[in-house]
Amino acid sequence: TAFMKAVASEPALARALHRSYILRVSSDTDSFEFQVSEHLRLSGVYWGACALHLLGELQSLDAAQVVSFVRSCQRGCGGFGGNLGHDAHMLYTLSAVQVLALFGALHTVDAGRVMRYVASLQRPDGSFAGDEWGEVDTRFSYCALCCASLLGKLGDIDVAAAVRYVRACENFDGGYGCEPGGESHAGQVFTCVGALAIGGELGSVRSEELAWWLCERQTPGGGLNGRPQKDADVCYSWWVLSAMCLLRRDGWIDGEALRRFILSCQDEEDGGIADKPGDLPDVFHTFFGIAGLSLLGTDGVPPIDAAHAMPASVMEQLRAEQAAAASEG
Q: Which of 40, 114, 116, 182 has its CA 20 to 30 A from that of 81?
């Protein structure tokens, strides 16, 4: 096709450089990036490990060391903090479960204990708090549902109530906010559509209206933004396109232009992907840039599960193991 011919003639994904970049920033404890990301180290491990998995390079990390670090972040309540000694939070609890799944190590934690923590944060209206201090956001609804799904324990939370709350956050334009009445934002759209997909209620989305809102996030430069009148940012290659894939409307954007934008954000000297062309790279945007290419089906990046933000191969293995355990039980 014309699209594939265009892909063949354009800059390629700098796989080796990105591998080296991720390994370098993961081990350089004196770097500025390492210091300022202390509070979200566990999520950083997920972004880096998942990116390496998509590049076919997960074996570059010391699996035993990573799993040991993740388990060391678990608190007495069953949840995980963003780093050693940090308070538990829903965001980092999901990152911990995702990392353990990437390394085939979910069996090393007590799933019931983790889920008791997750369930304890569900509110009577179906929403979820992020931690014991009570902030409510649809991000946390997604984290709870995704965590429960990966652990095979959706029955441990009130899914129906969780879905009702997410649906209450839908806006007139088909988008979703962080709470009822909150402004539509592509990041929140992903969390809500992902939550509804995991909760088995994707059919409740106003797909046509939302898909139009999402495809209008594409800017003249090919990249995607999070809301009207904002600059394009590589991370929205994931937030927007994943939701469109779940809605089966990913053909509504110009994939070739988006690919060009993602690749233009690569640091072709030191590796890594930035938010915008010319900016400094970071692990967050490196992962979401590579994940965006996976959703586009280009550059040899294998498929990623759009609802769980996990390599499709990992999800297939996980579901096979859960099915085998269920049949034995």
A: 182
